[in-house]
Amino acid sequence: MPPTQSPPPDLAAPADAPAVPVSGWGRTAPTVARLVRPRSYDEAVAAVRGCGARGGIPRGLGRAYGDAAQNAGGAVLDMTALDRIHAVDAAGGVVLCDAGVSLHRLMQVLLPLGWFVPVTPGTRYVTVGGAIGADIHGKNHHVCGSFSRHVLSLELLTADGTIRTVAPGDPLFEATCGGMGLTGVVLTASLRLQPVETSWMTVDTERARDLDDLMARLTATDHRHRYSVAWIDLLARGAATGRAVLTRGDHAPRAALPRSRRARRDPLEFRPSRLPAAPSFLPDGLLGPTTVGIFNELWYRRAPRLRTGELQRLHAFFHPLDGVPHWNRVYGRSGFVQYQFVVGYGEEEALRRIVRRISGRRCPSFLAVLKRFGDGDPGWLSFPTAGWTLALDLPAGLPGLDGLLDELDEEVAAAGGRVYLAKDSRLRPELLPAMYPRLEEFRALRAALDPRGVFTSDLSRRLGL
Amino acid sequence: MKDAFGAPQSVLVLGGASEIGLAVARRMLVRRARAVWLAGRPSPALDSAAASLRALRPGADVRTVEFDALDTGSHEEVLGKVFAEGDVDLVLLAFGVLGDQARDEREPAGAVRVAQTNYTGAVSAGLVAASALRGQGHGSLVVLSSVAAERARRGNFIYGSSKAGLDAFAQGLGEALRGTGVHVMVVRPGFVRSRMTAGLREAPLATTPGAVAAAVESGLRHRASTVWVPGALRPAMAVLRHLPRPLFRRLPL
């Protein structure tokens, strides 16, 4: 065969990209968009310039639960091909990487060097770009704040096709953090890292017999731990309403590892195992009040009343669900809805009412967690504010769920709280300005920066962001 | 955009003065709809329908637009005008006429009008709407068929045949639109108590426009392709459809 020259790598042409159904992690409202996967910054620029009349939106690993990374009839920019880690300052604890790099990848690379990501959500399978766009938080929010607080600077590809470097303090930076990808495409970011001696956690577990007991325990001792969260049984009723298992942890120092174990030889080992993926044909209704009720009962009883200093693998502590790929399929074809809200300190009565309401309605939520947030973050649409945050998932097919969540929205808004846009798939747009007081500034910045509305998502259409 | 439960924010009702169309619009306004287009021939009924919706939710953007199912040449322009104003999450094909079976048998022109409204007009409007929905990459097209489409009956086969044609068309359109983001749902109500059926003898399993609207809402939520109202009609018609003709003829339907 004569030697053939490989064709020049052509730019990803948005107009030719395949139109495919795109949905969020909750799989509730799929819409069709052209999926463009830029493999270089030039291709990303070309993709933004060629978005067409219905605009485009960047997408990472698709872990936003609702419609944040969908764009019906337009372009969706899959950023996961831009996944290089450019530089690691192993002495100073700073990494410069592409926005398409996942936190999983960062952990693989950084843990052996003695560094950990500053903030991780309940899954490692999010990209750095997505973490900035949603301004994610983790179990350490009460100590460390949200993800964007650890971003030193980022490069943003804006609607006019130019790449700008933005840093904390810059309005564009603050609009971008939590801005759900609507200010532009994050191309790279440099992050400040968290030093660790091992890839192990020392974990304290304790049970709380009801919601008041839970809040009292969290309030009293949260500050002693870097990471803190409580799993809450929303099916428990009566005197047990809001019973919970508190899990608090810290990075284990090297000295805490037992001398005899393999762990001591390779204290920074990071090799999370994964089970087979959940199959795609699971029916609706597997997670009903009965199954979840049994699960919750066992989960609560399995937990020790009090155990301190248990050693856990980092991935077991932070990302238990990552062990089952496609776990979202267990909710069946109708998918599921995540509902996460925050109400400020002093609004405990609203939280109590909401928890009573959910448990009174027998809502089968087996992934409900309660956490105390620290101070709010600078992002204009960042979710966290000082207060209590409760997150729960519910099957979308649950009868009456739409009405119930609307009622909870009212309760949350009346208490001065808000719901989390990265998880939202059903909020009423009328409530948004009350929940996000800086929404008008955000809209004004977008109108000036992106007058043609190049960056558009199903979320932005639905809520009028 | 529709939310996680399939509730639309904008609705276009073709046949805006129809009672079922109005019941659906009302139900959607209570949920998430904030923009409603009522398309129909200009009439006091259409205006009062719009007024009743505005009264239901002040602040909602309720508009009427002139639309005639029989004037197929104008469909592209009329629907184009609506879609140019913004995305439409739900298009409801609700227009249709019952005709007068006995008279239409004597005067075929009347039968032709039934066929042209219910079938030809719907084919035209349905295709125009489908193309617009396809362009926006999302949305539902809900087509009001009828239980009468399932098996021809002596008493209403002109109407029934027009709905049978429409039903088959809508099913095929749904297949054609798979993977485009557009969802097509065929709704087959039984006897609906409304202006259209006033004075007629009520059939078993009769229902109301409100019940049809509730079934549409639930069908949207589950992204159903076929909805029977009431649901019991599905097994009932599965049997009736295969009943030997001499037996079927004797049934008091």
Automatic annotation (TrEMBL), chain B:
Record key words, sorted: Oxidoreductase
PANTHER family, A to Z: 5-KETO-D-GLUCONATE 5-REDUCTASE, DECAPRENYLPHOSPHORYL-2-KETO-BETA-D-ERYTHRO-PENTOSE REDUCTASE
NCBIfam families per UniProt: PRK07904.1
GO molecular function, one term: oxidoreductase activity
Family according to the record: Belongs to the short-chain dehydrogenases/reductases (SDR) family.
Source organism of this protein record: Streptomyces chilikensis
Top-level division of the source organism's lineage: Bacteria
Listed name of the protein: Decaprenylphospho-beta-D-erythro-pentofuranosid-2-ulose 2-reductase
Enzyme Commission number(s): 1.1.1.333
